[in-house]
Amino acid sequence: MTAEKKKSKRVALVTGANRGLGFETCRQLAQLGLTVILSARDCTKGQAAAKQLIERGLNVIFYELDVSTQSHMSRIAHQIEQRFGRLDILVNNAAILYDTWQSAVNADLEVVNQALITNLFGPWKLSQVCIPIMRRNKYGRIVNVSSGAGSLHYMGSGSPAYSVSKAALNAFSRILAADLHGTGILINSVDPGWLATDMGGHGGRLVEEGAKGIVWAATLPDNGPSGGFFFDGKPAPW
Ligand code: NDP
Fold it and tell me: Whose CA is nearest to atom 29 of ligand 1?
């Protein structure tokens, strides 16, 4: 099979893709000719989002996936196996709880736990069920959507649940990349920058700009980096 044919058959899964950065990432990946699984926890919203892209002629399919529900992870892996028999790209995008109202001194640890369940354990478990599918083709790209808030270099006061969950996600990216060295599966964390989405609010840059860095990491060549932290395709300080 030619390299071009292999590429045209590639399948990508994006979490939390009914709106914001996840939706735009699906659009950009589908525009490159990939088959994109747009996943969301809310079926009505997810189907409506997928419909918008399908109506533009893009190869997009909707699957339900709540990344805080363990049983959904094995279910979606099974669905992907059955329907496509392959998975090339996983974008762990879904996240919650940008807790600007909390400080580490008085943080509600139940809120911290919720952030960890969605922002860390979700990507972790989903990677675990997707890696066996990727391994078969000796090819995979896992993009963990992180944040400048997860950078120890820039870390200061505020949003403790979110910041700790993203710092832990970065650690997970590094460990997983080392575990999978030489397998053809590249894992990186990407900071999309401050974006004008529901989470980011007004004033951030366009979601199209943030998604470009995710797509860059999702389509790295075989000799591309793994275990890194990137912003707009350039190394970012941990
Ligand atoms: P939004 O809040 O706009 O969108 C978040 C998406 O995640 C929604 O689709 C939401 O679904 C989904 N989601 C939340 N919880 C779950 C879950 N348990 N299962 C499945 N989906 C879920 O955020 P953004 O688009 O701005 O953020 C996307 C990513 O970018 C996140 O990882 C975020 O941390 C990161 N980021 C964003 C920045 C910004 O400025 N916006 C800056 C740096 C990083 P629903 O509609 O059902 O709530």
Answer: 93
| Choice from 26, 38, 41, 45 to test ligand 1 binding pocket (greatest atom count within 8 A of CB) | 41
How many beta carbons lie within 10 A of that of residue 156, not counting itself? 7
CA angle 26–28–54, rounded 5-degree value: 60
The reported pTM is 0.97
158-174 per-position pLDDT tens digit:
999 999 999 999 999 99
Instruction: Burial-class residue 68 by CB neighbours within 10 Å (0-12, 13-18, 19+).
Output: middle
Q: End-to-end distance of the chain based on CA atoms, in angstroms? A: 39
Amino acid at the residue 40: A
Q: What average pLDDT does this structure show over 58-83?
A: 97
Distance CA 161, CA 111 (A): 7
The two structure tokens encoding residue 96: 């919650």
Q: What per-residue confidence (pLDDT) applies to 9?
A: 85
CA–centroid distance, residue 1 to ligand 1 (Å): 37
**Ligand 1 in reach of 190 Cβ (< 6 A):** no
- How far is Cα 17 from Cα 69, in angstroms, rounded to an integer? 16
